[in-house]
Design goal:
Order of helices and strands: HEHEHHEEEHEEHEEHEEEE
Mean pLDDT: 96
Structural class: alpha/beta
Distance between the termini: 35 Å
CATH architecture of the largest domain: 3-Layer(aba) Sandwich
CATH class of the largest domain: Alpha Beta
Number of helices: 7
Amino acid sequence: MVSDIAPRATARRALDFVKDGQTLGLGSGRAAAAFVEALGERVGAGLRVRGVPTSVATVELATKAGVPLVTLAEAGELDIAFDGADEVAPNLDLIKGYGGALVRERIVAASARRFVVLVGAEKLVSTLGERGKLPIEIVPYALPLARRQLAALDLVPVLRTRADGATYVTDNGNWILDCGTRPLADAAGLERTVRALPGVVGTGLFLGMAHAVLVQDGTRVRVLERT
């Protein structure tokens, strides 16, 4: 169970965005897990919603919490998607993917009419890239090429591994290169360049996607909205 005060507070606040009968995108990671648990409590009290999960872990958590699930094909366009983030810039651009579900998270967020992000205040940055890592999901066959081409872009690609030393494999069967980076002066330009590289499936740059960000700051939750 999620026990962090911060994700629980933002999760409760996020429930204010939910209406009976909606179909929701359910993200992955600590903040999203707290939201799924809080949503399950509301479902148990009679709220009628359906969820589209972004990872196998979210499927398991939502099932345990009693949240009805459907596939993206069954759902069509979603009403609203909820997820966490690893960095949030002042214009609400994001870096995501530390948890490894970045490609499915992007697909679900793009399928929703509204995308709401839940974070702690420590995730706020003045410029994307300040935390020094940009996850990029690649097809395994492309590893040698991707390493060379990303290094040529002044990134430092490191293959993600599990605690036991084995290569981390995403739910899509791909690998992740965690790219060391400086603050990004042109995140949009970098996104276009990286996405064009052969073998790249997706990046952790979520630009222009978030409609609102709920920020746990001490005991208070602030709502930042895109203008």
